[in-house]
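Weekly sync notes, structure subgroup
Attendees: PM, AL, DS (notes)

Item 1: joint prediction request from the bench team. They want all two components modeled as one assembly rather than separately. Inputs as received:
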Amino acid sequence: MALIELASIERRFTLGDSVVHALRGVNISIEAGEYVAVIGPSGSGKSTLLNLLGLLDRADAGTYRLDGRDTTGLSPDEQAAMRSRHIGFVFQSFHLVPRLTAAENIALPMVLAGIDAAERKRSVQKALAAFGLADRAHHRPNELSGGQRQRVAIARATVMQPAVLLCDEPTGNLDRHTGQEVTHLLESLNANGVTLIVVTHDPAMAERARRQIRMEDGAVLSDSASSVGVAG
Amino acid sequence: MKPLDILRFALRAVTAYPLRTALMLLAMSIGVAAVVMLTALGDGARQYVVNEFNALGSNLLIVLPGRSETRGVNPANFFTETPRDLSIGDADAMHRVAGVVRVAPMVAGTSEVAFGGKLREAMVVGTAHDYLALRRFQLAQGQFLPDEEGQRNAAVAVLGSKLRSELAGSEPVIGRMVRIGDRRYRVIGVLAPTGNAMGMAVDEMAYIPTEQAFALFNTSTLVRIFIETRDRAAIEATRTRVVNTLKARHDGEEDVTTITQDAVLGTFDKILSAITFGVAGIAAISLGVAGILVMNVMLVAVTQRTPEIGLLKALGASGAVIRLAFLTEAVLLSLGGAIVGVALGQLGAWGLRLAYPVLPAYPPYWAVAAGLGTAMLTGVLFGFLPARRAAGLHVVDALGRR
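Output from the run, pasted for the record:
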């Protein structure tokens, strides 16, 4: 059974009088451990898709099964609880809390999940070491470089060991060299079994993914895995 | 999220914006300090009055000439218009009333008092031996007016401590002569300093026997009779007997007024407590204003930190956690301000005590507790709306992802 199964997903927004179809009839199935790039022009619905996959938003129609569980009827708080355990987010603009140190930012998901301090400390130490941030643990985001900030964000996204890592333009705010470093970091995580889904404009980055899903006008235009066959 | 973590998180948010926090603390602390200080002032005034009365002795009955109560038509009204005076005979009669322990008559007037080369105006009180014990005064030197048969009318005087020091400086006065009006008296005693009692400068008075005062002021009427009853419980019964005795002596007419200290004290206590509550209430208005400030500050914080709220939600924070975090922040701001305010208020009260040593201006415990409690309640009350707004934000909107 696939880790992520989207079936006939619809998402509409009402802008004034007109109704915008952000997603229409989307069927996607992603297995655990896959490396997927979602590409398409702006307004194609790829961000909406990522919101849905990350349980930040709800579909108006269709079903979304995550890890075998139907998420369609979940309340916002139930969605939050599921996000906490299953999904890590990496955003283009890092989204670090400015007043907290790198270590505290990384610990944030565990703090919110109510994990006790000793275990938190262990996990954070491990993450700091793994992401080469050991000497930056007590720096605030404004004392870190762009690459370091994104590494903190990735460490935070993975500290709860989620099955899925959702990245929205993870290299969008970084120079080419740092961007490549971050890409390699994400790919190494994927190599260790994390399902990696990246939304990107960058064709070079999309090329690196083993599977590309191209979106246009809220629909899937092409899916490099569809030839293999999508499970219903 | 664990409660301790919520507290720590809110604390980090409070300390992250020092200027905002400082201003907020200032606003809240002014309110609380006002409550603490004004109640200290009000309660100090109450304590002061209570102490003044207690200095008089607690089972005291005071008889004044004249009737101050309204009453119906009485045959006696047609024949007399002015009340009879209180005489020394009336005072002596009091000794025979059951329940009476001490009696002191009082005549008072101002006169010149001269000693050595110095001369000044002073209040001169004519009274008897029991006055000292009855008013709880202490002697610094010598003895008070004599009580021995045949000595009661002696030409002797007792001086208040201030009067003595102003007239004689550090010279000895016992046994020497003082001139009061056109008469000479031998000084037999000096009172210890007592401060004020009932607003009268006791320390600046001279005391002479009643009959001497009658002669000095050319009168034969008393202005007061002080009566000490056996105990507090006996006051009411004794009062009735005293009034009946005087009525019998005054041709059946009840033409005196009696004051018990309890009644007067009770009234003053009530009035001053009401004033204290009143000023506390007025000061509490500033707490309400501070509460609105808390709300404004927290609403701004929610707007400012919208992306952060979105992030926390994306990372798995429930609405309840967000609400609690912001509410905690509001309460921390209010409570911090309240604590600073209590400290400021105590400082202010200390300043008041320094400026007016006679006023025991200590803030009552209920006022401190109420100040802290109200501040905290204000934080919860006015922090609730911003916290709810934060909790209700949609995660996608908050993250700016739409």
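Discussion: The longest helix of chain A spans residues 176-191.
Action: AL to compare against the crosslinking data before next sync.
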